[in-house]
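Appendix B, example 12.
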Amino acid sequence: MKIGVLTGGGDCPGLNAAIRAIVKYGSKRYEDSFLGVKYGWKGLVNKSMPIEERVMELTPVSVSGILTKGGTILYSSRTNPLSQENGEIFSIILTSSASMG
């Protein structure tokens, strides 16, 4: 399964550790693959930026050594996915959820 990972809101301690744990465990235990969505919810729908600049492949190798880095390797934004101006994000979430099951 391909899984997207993003960090939203402000930076806080432990985000890189959480990203690392998700990728390492999911890759090993379930053979999942991961894409990191840069810039939080804003990066998910910002069509003015090329997709290559908004996502990055996350592998056990690429997340090794991130524990000592501050912030989050995926960056973040304070974009509210449920606000009126971000209705598109909410629509994507609903559509994705409906198609899953």
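Residues 39 and 76 are 4 Å apart (CA to CA). The helical segments are 15-30, 40-45, 51-54, 87-100.
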